[in-house]
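Recap quiz, item 2
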Amino acid sequence: MPVVEHPQFRMAYDDDGKGQPILFIHGYPLNRKMWQPQRQELSSSFRLILPDLRGHGESTPTEGEYSMNLLAEDCAFLLDQLGITQPITVCGLSMGGYIAFAFLRKYPQRVKSLILTATRAAPDSPEAREKRLQAIQEARSQGLGSIVDSMIPRLTSKRTQQENQPLLDEVRKIMQATSVSAVIGDLQGMMSRPDSRPFLAEINIPTLIIHGREDILIPITEAQEMHNSIRGSRLVILDDVAHLPNMEAPHQFNAHLRNFMDDLA
Ligand code: MLT
């Protein structure tokens, strides 16, 4: 497993394929293994850069809040270490999308196009913040177990739950590889993330938005709102898919990504 030594932690990543680079930023509380279906199908055409964010998967944890800015800086550090200085495509799922917004705000010259999947521009509501605080308490007192158990059924569509037990098992395994420090750090970072909605009208790079029709964690209206506000953006809604479009409908997801990338070339 390749790693880079960040001053604060050891970052695991994969760097696969050749072609236009795409940085894939995973969601909470997941890791780079969630992008396995993209590695399999897309690395013949693109260079896929897949970090494990600090404390996730095989990257070592640090204590304290993982702000979206901090995680975006970690991604930039990895790109620097790999010598990738040209503008790239950034693809983020859910929390990875929050980080993609932070990355674009901090390093606009490094982003050529954007893929936002199962994510939102709006900040947490007061109720959502309250739930994050409860989850932080839960993680501190009981570890990861109950968080994973309560999230699994909410992440995937009815069809995935009925027909794709291997995927559910894989998602559980991926989540269990997250450290408690990262769960707490992510929750603190997500609850204090800024409102990205005012920023949407300034985005003037090609943007693809992919959302699952059955996503209950981030309702489809959030994707429609981003689509209406980001000039020239493309919106794809996938049926029988909830919060993990790239895993639940990998071939459709990959085909849309490929079309989008081909249109840019
Ligand atoms: C994620 O999938 O990254 C999280 O569900 C996002 C969130 O909790 O806001």
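The chain has a mean pLDDT of 97.
Residues 126-142 form the longest helix (17 residues).
End of item.
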